[in-house]
Hints:
Chain A is mostly helical. Chain A is 71% helix and 0% strand.
Amino acid sequence: MGYLLNSGGLIHLSMISETSIDQSVIQRVRKRDDATLTSIYKEVYPMVLKHVTSHNGSKEDAQDVFQDAFYLLIKKCERPDFELSSQLSTFLVGISKNLWLKKLTKKGIDQDRYHSEMEADEPAEFETDEKKLTRVRHMNFALTNLGEPCKTILTQYYYLKQTMQEIAAMLHYTNAENAKNQKYKCLQRLKKLVVKENE
Amino acid sequence: MNSAAQNMERFDAYLHQKMGAEERTLFEQELENNALLKTEFLEYRQFITDLHDGAEYGEIRHQLKTIHNKPGVGGRVFFLSPQFLVPLSLVASLALIITIINPFVKQGNSSAENSDYQNLQHSPAATESMDTATDSTVAFSETQANGKAYPGSPEFLTEIKTDPAGTAFLISKDGYFLTSKHLVEKHPLLTLQQKDQHYTFEASVVYTDSLMDFAILKCHEKIAAAFKPVPFKFLKNDIQLGQDVFTLGYPKNEIVYTKGVVSSEKGYKSDTLSYEVSLPSNPGYSGAPLFTSDGDLVGIVIANNTRQQAVTYVLNHHYIETVIDNLAKKDSMKIDMHTNFSKRYKDHSTLVKAYRAYIFEVHY
């Protein structure tokens, strides 16, 4: 029921479109407030869908590119000094378009066209973002393919910062030492998978 | 344990701030003096940062995917979905309350028109496309006031006769159901049916687990009002090898009972969050509950092994319970199971008879 009664957290669409962006929107995006993310998604996704599907892409491509752009937006909002130079929607559409252009380039469109069509104010920043995105995508892919119980052990420990005792209890290991050994093996396997993925 | 593993343990202790002040200083000094160790440490730290970011990326993408699948977000629009009906029913009941108050207003001000009630129903708060939903909710409240039986209300749909896609079961009398994730991932709005009870109604997906194959569904509160307390609880202990279990599900459009026995405490490829049951299962069994012969809930049927006969994988009940507890802790969803009870039945068939009413067909 939680989110149904959350309507207090809903932001009106006009708030996103206003030129002077309410700082609290950035804060809510940072906290990944579901209602806020939903209204942004609802407003901006159709634009990205239209762009991608009219540029050799499918619905799935649009979804993938848009969600990656959204991820980058969330990560940017986490920086304390982050300020939006344009409307939130323009910003998200911009990153999405660039990401899609990059994907098309990888599929074989010439470099010149890529640079002339790039819509970033700071191309260098986009390149860094894109590299970072590839990195996390590879890691996430490797983690997913790692299988259980490795995925659980590693995400619980390194991401959710659970203690080894808690993890051992959750996975029914007889003691934390067994879980620790398992964690070591898992980490080695993950390293191999990431190396393979990066090749 | 080899030295690499030992180093890793020290790195973890340092990075997770589990070292005392003195140990910390010593470790930092050692790093400065030992270039090899320092390189190893920096590489390790980078890898752990990547691991953290990769996991976070997965979590964010999962949240966005869930948002994408919400009604009206990723393209599909369902105005009659229960998610919309809850706030709408509030608007509707407000309209009714104001109508009840209205006669007094009229007495004081006789010039008021008789059509006030109608106008209030179509209050500006309700958008045009949502009007149908508002109307049906109001109409429903009236039927209830007339004392008609609940299942006759417009919220229940006509019976579906085709084969169900899978199985779901009631876990709380407030209208929460458990099922498996792969069944509902592409369908934010589903139809649930229990033919013995003549229940056919819509339910929406309110939670899909990022890790394991299970999802939580919820139906509208008004539907849930018809439910009785759930006669089973999670088993407190672990399952035991060789324990007798049974399941109730919908591999065809009739409920089917199947008996089995716990054949391994670990699941597919030694997954510790699921376990293996020697029990023949067919497609439609996805999302079916697994009970011990005493009637305690011990998991959800998620998959079978196509290469081995009669090997079915079941998601561990401890994991499900942990997730439900965490959802309640984070205040995102409170699934109230305190009315759930368990009792001893005179024989097994009486138990099965009591349970089957809580097992539902899932239709798209």
